[in-house]
């Protein structure tokens, strides 16, 4: 899986996996009784754009910057 700046090759488009997004939210300490890891997973998945072909590429596993902004806004909401 690609990491934001950690394991990307030079010139690769930056992306963020579900694990990294969950780690970011955990470090921000926003979990509560009403907002759990399940909510973070839902925010992540709802922010991802639909993909026509999930077999030939792995775009459905990593979010780009615009998807990250949407997921982060869903968490803030």
Rg on CA atoms, Å: 13 Å
Number of strands: 2
**Major sheet attributes:** 2 strands, antiparallel
Task: Report the total helices.
Answer: 3
Order of SSEs, N→C? EHHEH
**pLDDT < 50 runs, ≥5 residues:** none
The first-to-last residue Cα distance is: 28 Å
Strand sequence of the main sheet, in spatial order? 1-2
What percent strand? 5-15%
The figure for the number of domains is 1
Taking all residues together, what is the mean pLDDT? 83
Provide the helix percentage: 40-55%
User: Which structural class do the helices and strands define?
Assistant: mainly alpha
Shape: globular
What does this structure look like?
- By secondary structure, the chain is mainly α.
- The protein has one domain (16-76).
- Helices cover 43% and strands 5% of the residues.
- It has helices at 18-27, 37-47, 65-76; strands spanning 16-17, 62-63.
- The chain has a two-stranded antiparallel ribbon.
- Helix 1 crosses helix 2 and helix 2 (37-47) packs across helix 3.
- The longest helix is centred in the C-terminal third of the chain and has 12 residues, at 65-76.
- It is globular.
- The model has no long low-confidence stretch (mean pLDDT 83).
């Amino acid at each position: 899986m690609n990491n934001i700046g950690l394991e990307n090759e030079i010139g690769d488009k930056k992306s963020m996996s579900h694990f990294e997004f969950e780690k970011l939210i955990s470090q921000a300490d926003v979990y509560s009784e009403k907002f759990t890891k399940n909510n973070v997973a839902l925010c992540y998945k709802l922010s991802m754009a639909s993909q026509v072909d999930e077999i030939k590429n792995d775009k459905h596993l990593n979010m780009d910057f615009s998807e990250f902004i949407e997921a982060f806004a869903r968490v803030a909401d």
